[in-house]
Amino acid sequence: MPNETINQKISEEVDKLLEDVASDFSPTNKEKEIVGRVFNLFRITADNRNLAFDYFDGRNLKTYIEDSVKRFFTTIDKREDIEDWQARVFDPFTRNKVMAILGKIAQAIPKSEFIARGTEDFRREQILSDLVQYSEELDDNEELMFFALLEGLVKGTMIGYEGYDEKERAVRDIQNWNSGDEITLKEGKVKTKKVYGAIIPLEDFYPSSVGVRKIKDMPYCFWRTVLPLESFRMHFSKYDKAKFVQPASDSWTGEQGQRPFYLDFISDNVMPQNVEVIRFYNQDTDEFVVMANGIWLNSVGKKEDVMPIPFNHKTLPFWKTIYEPLGADFFYGKSLPDKLKPMQDVLNVLHNMMLDQGFLSIFSPILVSGTDDIEDDFLRPGRRIPVDDPNAYKQLQISTPGGFHQWIYETTKRILEETSVDPVSQGVAGTGERVTATEINRAAAGAISILGLFQNFVKFGVRDKARLRAKNVLQFYKAPLIEGILGEGGSAEAKKAFNTFKIEDTTLTSGKRGTKIIEMFKTREEMPTRTELRTRAKITEKETGRRVERMAINPDYLRNFEFDVKLVANPKATESKSMEKALWFEKVGVYMNFFGDFVDREELALQGAELFGDRPEKIFKKEMISPLPQPMPAGQGGGTGLGANMIRGQMQNSGIMQGQRSLKQMLPTA
Q: Which of 49, 349, 505, 628 is found 20 to 30 A from 94 (Cα to Cα)?
């Protein structure tokens, strides 16, 4: 029997077994009450969201999204009632502008820093900023934000989700292998726990009301997902009741009076063999309900309590950004393809008409001797039209597109440029034979104002995202991670640091950039002393040639930490790096010109090497990286190292040290 037949038979037997299990499921009165209440509220919310709005020019959200997305990716202009030889070009203007704006905004995504409220412990602020940066690096946050911005540009609104996930997967390690088929395996399981972000498709998010602008002001919202039965079983198998879920079907063909209850709790637009998963978040009542095709999956305990929102912040775990506002009383934003739609259609018509006219002028129709009159307005390149004319075979004269047509075409493109982003901001130095600096500056200034509006909404979204991410980090980056790293029961065996976070290219406590290593210990008694941390940091510095700072904390240190978010320019962005280099050159010039006698040139050299991405230990002499301490004359304490000696010598020559000793002599002694 072929393998395909065997696999199909096994799949059918598994499906039949699952159907038998599902047929044995009988919901309790509490389950029926919760499912009925949540689904009825979802149906009301969906009907409100799916209405046609004047903001969408009489379209509903689904049609608005489909039209905007199609205008972004298509290359075909589907004109009606045209011949097969006529052009159907969809000018890629809209896509080009979306990608141009995306390229500009992606470089300007700000970085979040955290400010403590009610405390002056600046160390907590820095640790929280470092932990959030660490979680974003693990989650590939830069890629996530790139596609989040693309979603906001194309659909007008982007919905993001900040959550926490636990997953256990089977692994098999190879112990012995002779490069053949004799392999010894060791099977095991790995549990992963992570704080992560995701993009929610706009059509899958249901706000409590489209008249509420901010997500945090909504009492509740829904997140709906429709997926095939096999995919549902794969992703939701962690719920025990998932095995009772039945797929949607066209109609019930069973006995009368035995219609399954769950068919009343599936939306009408769900295709057969699919499962509709509805997640309900209510921050006013602290409820989180997950139901699939009418079955409540996440009830708590034997009492069937409703699960609370699983995050300590107890708010809706979503954030959003928009491209342009449609109104202060409307949840959704306007997309760039929809904004360019009117002139894009005109551009397509002009472009295709000019191409059609060009085709006809190159291969014009021919008039031949005959008796028929020209009764139709139908033209085709090379068509022979019989006419009542004694002159046989005369070519129909059709002019090529003239300057007026080109002027209309260029005017339309200029209006589109002013509506989106000009070629100068795209990297084009200008168009035409003569382009003045004033015209370039004026066009760039207009584009900057358009980009600045979108950038402001991006900042609002990044701020809300940072608040959710930081609170999840405080909740899940503490004691629960002990089990994830050391295994079940590992928290009782943790003797040393149970979690270590290494953050590259971050700001150290001294204000300089380098590598920070944060070690988390179970209790304060297990934490190393400051001397031990500094010694280990110095050893790492000698090995790597880079500044290293080590910190040791325990989970209680970050508990009940109130904070606010401050957005700053991302130091890793290309433009920020260029600006940092320019400021550094200017700063060094001022220091050397005005304070040359006091400048530590070696420290400036180290800063410059790191700023340009070079490793100092490969560029400079070893004595410069780790200078040997030099003997000091009696009575001259202070720092060690060649740089400190130079500064101290200059201070002595200038009389500053003598002035300080004279002042000490004047002060009374105890």
A: 49
